[in-house]
Structure formats: C-alpha cells, structure tokens
Amino acid sequence: MTDHAVLDELQQAIDEAFRGRERVAMREVYSQVSRHVGLPADLLTHLNELPEGAYDRQELTEAINEVITRRGEQDTLGLLEVPRQAGPDDGDPDLMR
Predict the structure, then answer these.
(1) CA 72 to chain centre
(2) Fewest Cβ atoms nearer than 10 Å: which of 15, 46, 60, 77?
(3) Cβ-count burial of 48 within 10 angstroms (0-12 exposed, 13-18 middle, 19+ buried)?
C-alpha cells in the first residue's frame, strides 16, 4: 500500500469513528482504525502516542499530524488534511446582511 493510500485509509477510519458524533474517545478511534486491515501495524503505534481522552475531528487530526511530524515522516507519509471548524461566518452569507 502506498503512503498516500495509507493516509486515505486512515482518514476513512477516522471518518467512520466520528460518524454522527462531535467527540470520540481515543480508544474508539483506535478500535476503528484497527479494523482496517490495510493499515500497517506501525500506524497504530502513531495512535498509541496520543493521550487518552475525547477528541473532536480537528483536535485528533492535528494530534496525529504532530506525531507524524515529530517522527520526521511528513515528507514520506504526508499529513492528514485538518478539517476547518465551523465558525460564525460559515452559514448563509445573506443571513447576516
């Protein structure tokens, strides 16, 4: 599996863990990721470096990217795309006028 495909599958596993939820416990993310047989076991060790607790999607993505960067793998593995959090300007632009 190419590095890009690994990140795509990791992103899919994260999406599945967050389906219908704003925050997810790290153990649930780990469980969901471990179900993806195409992901190398080494990638699970990245998740082991994250503190326990509940994360929103942006917090989790940034934390995983920090582990990848700390390991110096950003050039070979790449980084996950950090989702934008909804803000006050994310609604219909005509509603505020």
Answers:
(1) 18
(2) 15
(3) exposed
The candidate with the shortest Cα–Cα distance to 37, out of 64, 10, 15, is: 10
DSSP string, 29-66: HHHHHHT-TTS-HHHHHHHHTSPSSEEEHHHHHHHHHH
Tell me the C-alpha distance between 33 and 39, whole Å: 8
How far apart, in Å, are the Cα atoms of 41 and each of 13, 22, 25, 87? 14, 27, 20, 36
Assess whether pLDDT exceeds 70 at residue 34: yes
Q: Which residues pair with 23 in a beta bridge?
A: 56
Residue type, 37: V
- pTM equals 0.82
| Mean pLDDT value of segment 25-48 | 91
Residue 95 CA to residue 93 CA, distance in Å, equals: 6
